[in-house]
Amino acid sequence: MEVFAATLRRLADQSGGLAERDLPGPHASLPCPAGPAAAAADAFEAIVDGTSAGVPGGDLLGRPASRHEFGEFTVLRPLEAS
């Protein structure tokens, strides 16, 4: 999670919010207006630094996950196995 947050921040800083396409998965490509990379970087940094605690929930396969809501998108973080 920490590496992904740092990568998003670097990409957001380098692109200046000018990315043309978002690639959310291996076979998906969506138009990307200015700003989402920075918003995603902010969100993942909030998860990493603990300012977004999330709420208990589950992922699409029913596995336990912490749900972090950020306006137009949600991040599901798998819960650590105990």
Task: Provide a quick synopsis of the model.
The chain is α+β, with helices and mostly antiparallel strands and 82 residues long. Helix content is 34%, strand content 32%.
Topology:
Elements: H1 2-15, E1 21-25, E2 28-31, H2 36-49, E3 55-58, E4 64-70, E5 73-78
Antiparallel strand pairs: 1-2, 3-4, 4-5
How would you sum up this structure, described in words?
This protein is an alpha+beta fold. It has one domain (2-78). The protein is 34% helix and 32% strand. It is built from two helices and five strands; from the N terminus they run αββαβββ. It has helices at 2-15, 36-49, and strands at residues 21-25, 28-31, 55-58, 64-70, 73-78. The strands form two sheets. Strands 3-4-5 form a three-stranded antiparallel beta sheet, with helices on one face. It has a two-stranded antiparallel ribbon with strand order 1-2. Strand 4 (64-70) and strand 5 form a beta hairpin. It is globular and about 35 Å long. The chain starts with a helix and ends with a strand. The mean pLDDT is 81.
